[in-house]
From TrEMBL:
Protein name as catalogued: Phosphoribosylglycinamide formyltransferase
Pfam families: Formyl_trans_N
The protein's Enzyme Commission number: 2.1.2.2
GO cellular component terms, semicolon-separated: cytoplasm
Domain Formyl transferase N-terminal: 5-189
Catalytic activity field: N(1)-(5-phospho-beta-D-ribosyl)glycinamide + (6R)-10-formyltetrahydrofolate = N(2)-formyl-N(1)-(5-phospho-beta-D-ribosyl)glycinamide + (6S)-5,6,7,8-tetrahydrofolate + H(+)
Biological process per Gene Ontology, one example term: 'de novo' IMP biosynthetic process
Any one Gene Ontology molecular-function term assigned to this protein's record: phosphoribosylglycinamide formyltransferase activity
Gene behind the chain: purN
Binding site for (6R)-10-formyltetrahydrofolate: 109
The keyword Transferase is assigned to this record: yes
Native source species: Longimonas halophila
Binding locations of N(1)-(5-phospho-beta-D-ribosyl)glycinamide: 14-16
InterPro entries the UniProt entry points to: Formyl_transf_N, Formyl_transf_N_sf, GART, GART_AS
Protein family membership: Belongs to the GART family.
Length: 224
């Protein structure tokens, strides 16, 4: 089975990156995290990477004159790491065109709702869960999708619903959604590693009948 050479992009604490690392350690994901990219030097994801001796790079769009220059700088880093696949894990910046062109259908993102609901610019983290509660919907969930040139707009690869409970607070809902994110993302990336996912325009086909969701190892629960 091919081993994904995975670059993880993260702007925050990096719990989804930790879930990927845990899945790799538990032989649930045939991948190697070759580097962590962030737009924030204070991102907790960078600390998690360094704790695993994973190379890190900090590049912000504001450091460059144009999006193209930003993208070219990212591509140089990714080339240095011989990256084969990119996983966005709480990354808040738009992926520039040079990176999209270099990794067609090889960039995924995980979003804490059932897209296209509660997605788009500015919809991330607790903002999503607050919007879900304010809307009074009975179901939310998690979406893994391919990345294109618009926020939360790429072809959907997998989704898993999460019920919204009458007693839910933003924090309670976020924690339950995160637990699903931490199971779903490694499972989807495993399917990419196995060559089970085919993409034609906006249609994603998975060659097996259903997505396998491995139970998280006990230590994964502590990363929520």
């Amino acid at each position: 089975m091919p081993n994904l050479r995975l670059a993880v992009f993260a702007s925050g604490g990096g719990t989804n990156m930790q879930a990927l690392l845990d899945a790799i350690d538990d032989d649930l994901l045939p991948a190697t995290v070759v580097g962590c990219v962030s737009d924030r030097s204070t991102a907790g994801a960078l600390d998690r990477a360094r704790a695993h001796d994973i190379p890190t790079a900090v590049h912000s769009p504001s450091d460059y004159d144009t999006p193209a220059a930003f993208g070219e700088a990212l591509c140089r880093v990714l080339d240095d790491w011989t990256t084969s696949f990119i996983a966005l894990a709480g990354y808040l910046k738009k992926i520039p065109a040079p990176v999209l062109h270099a990794y067609p259908n090889r960039i995924t993102n995980i979003h804490p709702s059932l897209l296209p609901a509660f997605g788009g610019p500015g919809m991330y983290g607790t903002r999503v869960h607050r919007a879900v509660l304010d809307a009074g919907v009975h179901w939310t969930g998690v979406t893994v999708h391919l990345v294109n040139d618009a926020y939360d707009d790429g072809p959907i690869v997998a989704q898993q619903p999460v019920p919204v409970l009458p007693t839910d607070t933003v924090d309670a809902l976020q924690q339950r959604v995160l637990a699903v994110e931490h199971r779903l993302y490694p499972a989807v990336l495993r399917q990419f590693a196995r060559g089970q996912i085919q993409v034609q325009d906006r249609t994603v086909t998975v060659t097996n009948d259903s997505l396998s969701h491995p139970e998280p190892p006990p230590h994964a629960q502590s990363h929520n």
